[in-house]
Amino acid sequence: QDGTVQGRVRDDEGTPVYNATVVLRRSGTPVVAVDTDRLGSFRFFGVTPGPYTVGVQALGYTEYSEEIVVDPAENLELEIRLERSALLLDGISVEAERNRARVVFETVGGATIRDLDLEAVRTVPALAEPDPVRALEVLPGVVSTSDFSASFHVRGGSQDQNLILLDGMPIYSPFHLGGIFSVFNADMIDRVELYSGGFPAEHGGRVSSVLQVESDSGDGDFSGVAAVSLLATRVAIGGGLGTSVSSALGFENIHYRVSSRRSYIDILAPQVPYHLTDFQGLIEGWTTGGDRIALTGYVGRDVFDLTNLDDEDFPLRIDWDWGNDAIGVRWTHPRRGGGSLDVRANFSRFSTGLAFPDFADTRLSSRIKQGQFRADLDLRPAEHVSVQVGTSVEVQDYKNLFSSGGTDFATGIGNGLLLGAYVQTRWSPDVWLVELGLRADGYDPDPGSRVGEISPRLAVKRFLGAGDVAVKLAVGRYTQFVHSLRDEELPLGLDFWMLAGARAPHTISDQIQAGIEGYRGDNWFWSVEAYARSFDGVVTFNTAENPNDDFDDVLSGEGFSYGVDLMIQRETGEVTGWMAVSFLNADRTFPDPLSPLPGQPEVSYAPIFDRRVDVDFVLSYPAPWGWEGGIRW
Question: Cα 507 from chain centroid?
Fold first, then answer.
């Protein structure tokens, strides 16, 4: 009877090695090879009894080899430790990126995933300083409405329909300076991953895209980075707590990394009383058993203070501030044979306030906050089969107010309880990848009525020829229970969030996408995708709202979009980059509140993010004297 060989690959400090290649050889001949997952786990099924050699290779580590003997029906467990290699290889970061992109191509079904690591973010030319969110603008299917805004739209969706996560924590309005820059400091980022379509059932709460921003905890060695840009000064430091301290706390190793950033225009030019600050930190520890516990925190604020100016200099004094606060803890427990249990708890808040000291009865304020508890279980019951199940509880509340002269022109107070559960399975026999998922959401708003939604999702991929080309299809339903009332026609602005309920419906989006993608050699990746999306329950401002009616601030409508995305990318070599071409047709339909005709006839129009053709070109190349050059068009 055949046996099983499974185990984990970690470095000499106990940190899992992701994307290491594990090869099983017999008499010097490779039998089978797999890549480790994010927890360093691997597994070989159906291993014929006998002697083997296990070899492990990973960039930045010395090669590992071990002789083993597999007995009949044995489940052999291996714990492999790799030593870091001092050998410097030209293009090592480029090669590592190629491997990760290839893993996505070979293991992900219908989802469209665009992945940018820190090097890619830094080499995309940007205004003032590297910005992880602005780097998304050059990806296919992503539209930015102006050069003055870092907010983005994906395949015909509104900017509030993007789920933005920092280490698993939702960030509601991740922008500084009214939307010009994002709150994410590039010195703290490990990688940015955008799901622009077909994302699986584990992701809920938004209907357009999922942006996952992962922090970098460093390698445990003390290091520091300081920089001055046209925007701000910033500093980031990282290191480890040492073996003795880590052991005393029950860990094999503990890494940390913190960063701080502040703009300086108000210091150089006091007549411009604006500044931004943010602080981001991550501390993570790994136990000897491979468990990971991580704590992430973020605090950011923008302040525009005109209260200290003389009336002769500026006739209207303003005190305006806005920002985000978030904190989260995460425990990841690896399971024998692969898979994991992932438990998260976090809190996130966005708030803004605008006051006029000379007009005490005029004020504007907005706030939304959310607490979340979530658990996800990843199972590997058989070869070529994986199952994920999960559940989440989210408690949300918001408060919006605009009043002047004793009249409240816009008010909104509410809260909601969102319960979510999902199951998804992945089956990968031979040349097929089949992913089937089902998500259930129960929402209880106040004010409003309880609602329940079932969201099925299906993705299929079929590899062709030698496996370098694949066709894929994804269909699904997506739901959203929160809206932003920001006027997207304005290049700069702030979000005013509200929950679905008595004042606004929740959004339902049915989506389909199909495409073909592949590799030409080891250097070139290409993809073509077509998609169509419907949106039911989108909202906009009611220009004819009645100040005496608390429930007519917004209008409910529908939308539709379709398009084609093309991408050609050179992933390795001295010169790398990509070209993205996107065709998009988007529309929105709302009742006309100003029409004198009875029944409020509907009006359809193209929103500001409707783009027929969008072409982006990015090129990174080596320059003289060790410099790195970049071109963006």
Answer: 20
Strand pairing category for 209-215 and 223-228:
unpaired
Q: Residue 468 has what pLDDT?
A: 94
Residue with the bigger pLDDT between 598 and 67: it is 67
What CATH number did the domain enclosing 31 receive?
Answer: 2.60.40.10
- The rounded distance, in Å, linking the Cα atoms of 526 and 565 is 11
pTM of the model: 0.90
Residue at token pair 């003032």: 128
Cα 514 to chain centroid distance, Å, stands at 22
Separation in Å, CA 569 to CA 50, 55, 296, 615 = 44, 31, 33, 14
**What local confidence, expressed as pLDDT, does residue 585 receive?**
96
Q: Looking at the domain assignment, is residue 285 inside a domain?
A: yes
Chain-centre distance of CA 491, in angstroms? Answer: 23
Do residues 113 and 68 share a domain? Answer: no
Residue with tokens 């031979």: 430
- Looking at 28, 54, 82, the residue that finishes a domain is 82
pLDDT score for 403? 79
- In this predicted structure, the answer to whether residue 620 has a pLDDT above a threshold of 80 is yes
* CB burial readout 340-367, b (16+ within 10 A) else e: bebebbbbbebbbebbbeeeeeeebebb
Query: How far apart are the C-alpha atoms of 535 and 524, rounded to whole Å?
Result: 35
Give which of 356, 360, 275 is closest to 314, Cα–Cα.
356
What is the C-alpha radius of gyration for the chain, rounded to an integer number of angstroms? 26
pLDDT band at 118 (very low <50, low <70, confident <90, very high): confident
SS3 at position 91:
coil
- Residues shown for the chain: 633
Q: Quick one: how far is CA 203 from the chain centroid?
A: 11
pLDDT of residue 89: 45
188, 255: one domain: yes
Please calculate the CA angle 586-490-495 and round it to the nearest 5 degrees: 90
Q: Give the mean pLDDT of 225-229.
A: 89
Range of the domain at 70: 3-82
Residues 608 and 473 in one domain: yes
What is the number of alpha carbons within 13 Å of residue 462 lying toward its C-beta? 5
Q: What is the CATH number of the domain that holds 623?
A: 2.40.170.20
Q: Evaluate if residue 90 carries a pLDDT over 60.
A: no
User: What total of structural domains would you count in the chain?
Assistant: 2
Q: Are residues 169 and 278 in the same domain?
A: yes
What is the phi/psi pair of residue 116, to 5°? -125, 125
Quote the tokens at residue 373.
């508890």
> Which residue, of 82, 107, 130, is where some domain finishes?
82
Q: Is the pLDDT of residue 314 over 80?
A: no
pLDDT in tens, 554-571: 899 999 999 999 999 998
- 8 Å CB contact between 154 and 563: no
